[in-house]
Amino acid sequence: MASYLAQFQSIKNSCDHVVIAVEDVSDLWPNIKSRFEERLPFKRASLNNKTRNPVFVENFPAEFILTTDSRLRSRFPQEQSLFWFREPYATVVLVTCEDLDEFKTILKPRLKLITQNDEKEWFIVFVSRAHPSNDNAVKMAKKVYAKIEVDFSSKKRERCCKYDIHGPEANFWEDLESKIMECVRNTLDRRVQFYEDEIRKLTEQRFMPESLAFMFEMAHLYEDALREYDELELCYLETVNMPGKQRDFGGVDRGDDLAALLNPENKPLAQIVQDDSFREFEFRQYLFAYQSKLLFKLNRPYEVASRGYSFIIGFSQALTLHENMLPFCMREVWVITACLALINATASPNYDGLVALEIEKEFFRLKGDLYSLCRVKFMRLAYLIGYGTDIERSPVNSALLSMLPWPKPLVWPSVPPDASSEVLEKEKVILQATPKIKHFGIQRKPLPLEPSVLLREANRRRASLSAGNMFEMFDGRQNSSDGSASDASSRMPLSNKMNVISMLRTNSSPGNFDGSVDRPMRLAEIFVAAEHDLKHTISDANLWKALSSVEEFEQKYLELTKGAANNYHNSWWKRHGVVLDGEIAAVCFRHGNFDLAAKSYEKVCALYAGEGWQELLADILPNLAECQKMLNDEAGYLASCVRLLSLDKGLFSTKERQAFQAEVIRLAHSEMKHPVPLDVSSLITFSGNPGPPLELCDGDPSTLSVTVWSGFPDNITLDSLSVTLTATFNADEGAKALRSSTATILKPGRNTITVALPPQRPGSYVLGVLTGQIGQLRFRSHSFSKGGPADSDDFMSYEKPTRPILKVFKPRSLVDLAAAISSALLINETQWVGVIVRPIDYSLKGAVLHIDTGPGLNIEESHVIEMETFGNISQSSTEMAKSNGTQNNCSPSYKKEFQQLKLQDGRIEFPAWASDTNSVLWIPVRAINDKLPRGSSSVTPQKQSNLDGMRTIALKLEFGVSYNQIFERTVAVHFTDPFHVSTRVADKCNDGTLLLQVILHSQVKATLTIYDAWLELQDGFVHTGQGSGRPTSDFFPLVISPTSRAGIMFSICLGKVIGKDEAEALQPESILNIRYGIYGERTNGAHPPVAVECTEPEDARQDLIFKSAIVLQRPVLDPCLAVGFLPLPSTGLRVGQFVTVQWRVERLKGFEDNGISEHNGEVLYEVSANSENWMIAGRKRGHVSLSTNQGSRIIISILCVPLVAGYVRPPQLGLPNVDESNISCNPPGPHLVCVMPPALSSSFCIPP
Amino acid sequence: MATTACFIIVSRNDIPIYEAEVGSATKREDAAQMHQFILHAALDLVQDLAWTTSAMYLKAIDRFNDMVVSVYVTAGHILCICDFKCYRDKKTGENGE
């Protein structure tokens, strides 16, 4: 079998293409060989795979070999079905013949002989040498070829083709290729069938699948080849795991530690073989190597990595099972070399961009995993050698190493002799290694890098063999190193020597080996022993170099870490990648490369902080802070301190947290030259007070209280603090900062800060940013705490607070001032003017009212101003009425308040009770009017003018927190006399007595009582009789209800006319005097005048005097002229027709009694008419002479033309110089006359 | 056998919102970080795996030597992650690799 294997290997290595045999019957091949070989490799081939499905192969390689060639001849026909795959796949028979007889007698039998072998796939190529110009020869060749076709081609299969040397037909090559392919395909199918049958028959025969696989590979059917190898692997694993089939594992040869999983030619196959199977160690690697080779050929490096990773894991487990037979740490070394080999093999940039993004990601991830695995094993080896102090005790390293079991060799390596200097050296290193002190004095138990204490593990493993059986121990070692005698021999003496040395040292139990074995090894000794053993295990010079010194170790460690990190980053496994970045940073940090370290640490911190993994952040953040401190990056360092402070309180002790704060304060107050901005959002949070927002009216200042949570462990003094308000309605408007004026001390936890709030524009506001300063440090916090107590988790919300803290309402009326009554007050008397003050949901606390009276109105400053609560008057009056009659349950709920106030400099201050309730202010005023009221009569009608009694009071109310709110209103108050007087002559008696009726109209809403009335008559009138002009007093007191009337009769008669000069001294008009009293409520209107000094009892009557002027005119009894309108013509008026309008003027009195101014008896007349209606011809105005004698008369005629039809007012005659009272119109002129439309004019009618 | 497990609930934006360590073993000082580290690293796998399957229980998605990480993903993509020690047959040895 071994010989076959050697042969198989050599065959596999030598041939990698399909052979096509050429049976050169007529010695033609040398002539046409070059042309045939030009066609190789075939561009395209169609073959069947194992499942008989067609597969297209491009660039199919093949070789033409003559059957007489030694390569084919030397073989025994069908000697080994095992190597059948190298036999020709097709046989091309080359013939030529120019003579039919020759064909029949010689060629045909020979061809029959060649083609009778069924195993061969053959076809005949007839080569025609006839020149195209030689018709005879061409004909002959055709005949022969036809004969051949008849004899050898069948209906099923064309087996002939013709090749013309002097110019082959165009489709000859295609024909040839298809024929060759047909043959190859048939042969392949037949052989596949054969191998499959064989495999089925001989399940023990393990070579057939590989032969088949190799045949596929030769045919470039890599997929099928790979499948065969996979099957082979399965078969192998089945047998190898069968109980009772356990065989030698292998892997103890020198160089076996170097993984050969990508190197199929690592060892000759013959060496792996053992009895009827193979050593697992080599054979599995061998199989994987072939698989990966095929995968690379298929351009699927991703699969190499993927399969490789699982292969390494699986194989590593297999190594674990046999660990006690393998050299020390063989498993670790093999994994390292395997990973590196895979990484290198798949690292070619040619593979990039060939595959889908998903696969590419996965590819990177696998490479990251490979790097990571390699890194772990490498760290483990380094730790065993004693480089543990140089391995960062980070969570990742700790997690990787502390759960990874120690290697389990049969016996832990012992210290070699003459290694005492090395031991001393290691010991020195151990002693010198000082545990790294973390910044800020943070004390943490270092994370473990070992699954259990190495010292104990190593010593236990040594002692695990019963100490008494030293020979057993050596036996065991001999067994374990079976197969590599050199290895065993080199070790044995070492152990012996070591024992001698240790015996000399200890002397605990002389003469016995046990004591020396029992003496525990020290750590340094363990390191040295491991180093020595590893030196034997590791055959890779590079790997050993990487472990030879701390510097080399670090370099390799960095290389592996970077590789893993980069690949993880490329695969979007950012967490894996970033964590490894942290490891790179740790190395940079140790070498003082703080800049790079800080950059990497920042990435790690950003990831942990972003995802809120605080415990991990707490581990790494102090390192970053230290880097930043070293780099003098004050802003960064401060930010890191703040972040440390804002981490969960449980993660650091109070002392450590105080150290962070101390750093912040130290920097803030001393070192920094320029102010440094700092975001402390995570440390200082703030919120408005819970509950509804502060509500303010437009223009009101206030104070705002803000709750600030401090995350500092101690009190901290803030030099200044301000908080901004942001309007929610308008984003354009910048936030307004509210400053807290004094330095603030924040104690840990909750603080309440109060800031002054100047008037804001209307709208609602939310808290924006909290800013402040500590020394040179300008901090700001955006973080809006939910306002909850500290136990609500420190979950930071970067969302903007939505709850408004302040609402400023739009300007609205906050108060209303109005006159309490609308009815008139008494003029010229002191009256109460009521002003109702109505606060509208706004406090009038401390409000000040400025009162300014208009012209004609005075405030009685000597008198107090009264203020009382005000209920709706109408309501209260009805309520009162109700309460009198029925029940008393609807009494007003408010308390009645009353207060007297003093006016100072035109202003009064409101009492406290008036701040929220409606109140009425009673101001004593007096309206002045010097004019004497005039009575009215038919002669002098009353002029309706209220303006006379109108007075204004300007009111200005200042209120609000800082008198910032101002309300101004001018109140109009109406004043009037109590009465309006009108007179008429009730009757003219025959004896000349006139009855003068004086009608008194009450003007006020109060009851007036007349106690007395008298009339002082003007010149020309006298009271009848000897009376004083007073009416009969029995009627008094006369009570007049509000707005009603009363009348008084005076009997007067005309008196003598006094001379002109005397008349001037006398009064021109009569005066009516009325003494009256008034009963009224100030809440209704006019009321008794306010007594300046309220000494009088309530019921004391106050008599008032009212005076009114009355004009009396002597009656005109006899007119002196009479004017009469003469009748119009009976035909009526018609438009456009002249008409004469006539008036007759007649003198009724003689000249002597003349009150009329006339000039020589001439009378001035004037005709007035509407010019639209009338056209007047003649003089409209002029004098006519009228005799001054009584009874003289004259007619005035005017020619008029009416202009419009209808009822129109006729022209009127006036006598301007004569007083109207002297004219008697009797009969009076008509009001309207009828004017007919114009008559039809026939001259315009045109007959049809 | 004294063992410890860590259960953690991770919000949609990968922030741990609940953490509980259960088990009979005395709490190691460094264990908290270790658990956090292992669970945090497992998020990388969850992010890849969660969208490829309709199952909510992702079973053991990650192994860290003898620590097994198992994940349940809620409909709202809140993760309930648990890691615990998995003691295996001694013969198979380490199973993390």
Q: Your description of this structure?
A:
The complex is a heterodimer of chains A (1248) and B (97). With 1248 residues, chain A is an alpha+beta fold. Chain A is built from 29 helices and 51 strands. In chain A, strands 10, 12, 15, 16, 19, 20 and 21 form a seven-stranded mixed β-sheet that branches. In chain A, strands 22, 24, 26, 27, 28 and 30 form a six-stranded antiparallel β-sheet that branches. Mean pLDDT of chain A is 77; it is low at 464-517, 787-800, 873-892, 1093-1097 and 1153-1157. Chain B is α+β, with helices and mostly antiparallel strands and 97 residues long. Helix content of chain B is 20%, strand content 38%. Chain B is built from one helix and five strands, in the order ββαβββ. In chain B, strands 2-1-5-4-3 form a five-stranded antiparallel β-sheet, with helices on one face. In chain B, strand 1 and strand 2 form a beta hairpin. The longest helix of chain B is centred in the middle third of the chain and has 19 residues, at 31-49. The chains are: A alpha+beta (1248), B alpha+beta (97). The A-B interface holds A 312-313, 316-317, 320-321, 335, 373, 395-396, 398-400, 402-405, 444-445, 447-448, 568, 572-576, 579, 608, 610-613, 615-616, 619, 793, 795 and B 13-17, 29-30, 32-34, 36-38, 40-41, 43-44, 47-48, 64-67, 91-97.
Please render the helix and strand layout as text.
The complex is a heterodimer of chains A (1248) and B (97).
Chain A: H1 2-14, E1 18-24, H2 29-37, E2 42-48, E3 54-60, E4 62-66, H3 70-73, E5 90-95, H4 100-115, E6 122-128, H5 135-152, E7 160-164, H6 172-201, H7 207-218, H8 222-240, H9 269-272, E8 273-274, E9 277-278, H10 280-297, H11 301-321, H12 330-345, H13 357-385, H14 395-402, H15 420-432, H16 454-463, H17 470-480, H18 485-506, H19 513-518, H20 523-537, H21 541-546, H22 550-570, H23 574-590, H24 594-611, H25 614-630, H26 634-646, H27 654-671, E10 676-679, E11 684-688, E12 694-696, E13 702-710, E14 716-718, E15 720-727, E16 736-740, E17 744-746, E18 749-757, E19 763-774, E20 777-781, E21 806-808, E22 815-819, E23 825-826, E24 830-839, E25 848-853, E26 857-859, E27 865-869, H28 873-885, E28 898-901, E29 907-909, E30 919-927, E31 950-959, E32 965-976, E33 979-988, E34 993-1002, E35 1007-1016, E36 1021-1023, E37 1038-1040, E38 1045-1054, H29 1060-1063, E39 1070-1079, E40 1104-1110, E41 1121-1125, E42 1133-1134, E43 1139-1147, E44 1162-1168, E45 1174-1177, E46 1181-1185, E47 1193-1202, E48 1206-1208, E49 1212-1214, E50 1223-1225, E51 1233-1236
Parallel strand pairs in A: 1-4, 1-5, 5-6, 6-7, 10-20, 12-21, 23-32, 41-50, 42-51
Antiparallel strand pairs in A: 2-3, 8-9, 11-13, 13-18, 14-17, 15-16, 15-19, 19-20, 19-21, 22-24, 24-30, 25-29, 25-31, 26-30, 27-28, 27-30, 31-32, 33-34, 34-38, 35-37, 35-39, 36-38, 39-40, 41-43, 43-47, 44-46, 44-49, 45-47, 48-51
Helix pairs in contact in A: 6-7, 7-8, 8-10, 10-11, 11-12, 11-13, 12-13, 13-20, 13-22, 15-20, 22-23, 23-24, 24-25, 25-26, 26-27
Chain B: E1 4-10, E2 16-23, H1 31-49, E3 57-64, E4 67-73, E5 79-85
Protein name (chain B): Trafficking protein particle complex subunit 2
Organism (chain B): Dovyalis caffra
InterPro entries (chain B): Longin-like_dom_sf, Sedlin
